[in-house]
Each structure stands twice: as C-alpha cells, then as structure tokens.
Write a structure and sequence with these properties.
Oligomer: single chain
Largest sheet: 12 strands, antiparallel
Number of strands: 14
Strand content: 35-45%
Order of helices and strands: HEEEEEEEEEHHEEEEE
Shape: globular
Radius of gyration: 31 Å
C-alpha cells in the first residue's frame, strides 16, 4: 500500500505541475498584443499578386504583375474591360471602387522599336482620372508631364454603359449623331476637359498650358528645343490673340 500510495502521490504532483504550467501559458498569452501570433516576417518573397483588404473583404490595394492585374472595379464589381493589362498598384476607396494607381511597362519589339510608359493617376469620386503624372515614350517620341483635368458629374458606370451601347450600333449617321450627343457638355460641362498641363511635349518643348472649363487652351508658356521662349494668349478657337516673345 505504501508503494501504491507513493506512486499515486507522485502522479498527482506531475498532474498538478503540468496543469499549472498550462494555465500559466494561457494566462501569459492573454496579455499578448492582438494578432501578434499572426505576424510573419519575410526576408524575401516572390509573389504574382497581393490584395490588401478590409475586414469585410473590400479591396484597398492590389499589387500585381501583368497577367494577374485587375480590370476596372466599381463598388466591388468588375466592369468595362478585363484585367491582365496593367502591372503595378491599383488603389480602391472605402466603397471598393478604383480611385487611382501606379502602372508601368516597357519593352523592345523584335524589329528594334520600343515603347515605355509609367503612369500614376488619381480618380475623381465615382469617375475616372483627373490628375495624371506620366512618362510615355514610343521609340523616342516622348511626352512627359503633369495633367490636371475636370470631369462632368456623371458616374463612370453610366458613361461606360452609354459608350458600349453606341459602340454596338451599326456604322452610319445614327451612330455618328449618338456619339455627338454623347460628347456634348452636360450640364454646361464637357465629360472631360484638360485644365492644366506642365511638361515636355514630343517636339522637346517645355510647356505650361492653361485651358478654360471647356478644355480650350487659352494661355501657353513655352520654351522650344532651340531655347526660344514665348507667352501666347488664345481665344476659345485656339487663335493666338496676343504673343509675347523674346526680342531678336
């Protein structure tokens, strides 16, 4: 009996020790920072796409290669063209709608010609891009600069739906008239109007171009590839009304 009693007491001690250790581990884990166990550190990672999402699954940011890049998304639903054409980063607002991004590409063709583009844009709410910083190069034919634009208060889904309906029409006067109506200001504002451009155009001219609310250039400040500077004031039809240039 003494031997059995000692054995039972020993097992009780072992049980008590294990129970105490388990309780201590659980108690300590309760005081750890939330999600600390979920945090993982990588020195290097290869990935084709990363989705940053809110707790409800709404997209906030997509980083991807070309093939896995998303197409346009509004309110969490794809529309317009399919994905797979714009490697980089795409931003999304609180409603799961795209509101800008950074995309880039560039390659040389078998015939020796090349193209390269880096494009960063910010979208107007519920519409398309209104601020664009871009470098575009078609085999040395370069344009690089900042563009600031206005857009009429028309939801992008409505614009795309109307464009698609016109595109499906048979060629002819009816389709031409529908496209003309589509491009008309509504109300009093065009669907798109460039207001400010600061950059360098394909002729290697450094340029500041200011336009009215209809998108008509009204003031142009430029320095051309030969170093000639000028300041031109234009009417709504683009005719130069007054020009200030360097004296010969």
């Amino acid at each position: 009996m003494d031997t059995q009693l000692r054995r039972d007491v020993r097992w009780l001690k072992i049980y008590a020790l294990c129970s105490t250790a388990a309780f201590a581990i659980l108690a300590l884990s309760a005081f750890q920072k939330p999600n600390a166990a979920k945090k993982t550190k990588f020195e290097e990672i290869d990935v084709e796409r990363i989705n940053v999402v809110e707790k409800d699954g709404k997209l906030r940011l997509v980083i991807s290669n070309r093939d896995r890049s998303p197409g346009p998304i509004a309110y969490g639903k794809p529309f317009g063209y399919a994905g797979g054409s714009r490697p980089g980063m795409i931003f999304f607002n609180d409603e799961g709608s795209e509101n800008g991004g950074l995309t880039f590409d560039g390659k040389r063709q078998p015939n020796g010609k090349y193209s390269s583009t880096v494009h960063m844009s910010f979208d107007q709410y519920n519409e398309d891009q209104v601020i664009v910083l871009q470098y575009a190069d078609e085999n040395g034919h370069q344009r690089k600069g900042l563009q600031i634009s206005d857009r009429a208060d028309v939801p992008i889904l409505e614009v795309v739906k109307l464009q698609d309906s016109i595109r499906k029409m048979a060629a002819g006067p009816e389709k031409d008239a529908a496209m003309k109506r589509f491009m008309e200001p509504r109300p009093g504002e065009p669907l798109f109007a460039q207001r400010v451009y600061v950059g360098r155009d394909p002729s290697k001219t450094a340029l500041v171009l200011l336009s009215d609310k209809m998108g008509h250039p009204r003031l142009r400040l430029s320095v051309d590839s030969l170093g000639k500077a000028s300041l031109d004031f234009m009417d709504a039809d683009g005719k130069v009304m007054r020009s200030i240039g360097e004296q010969p």
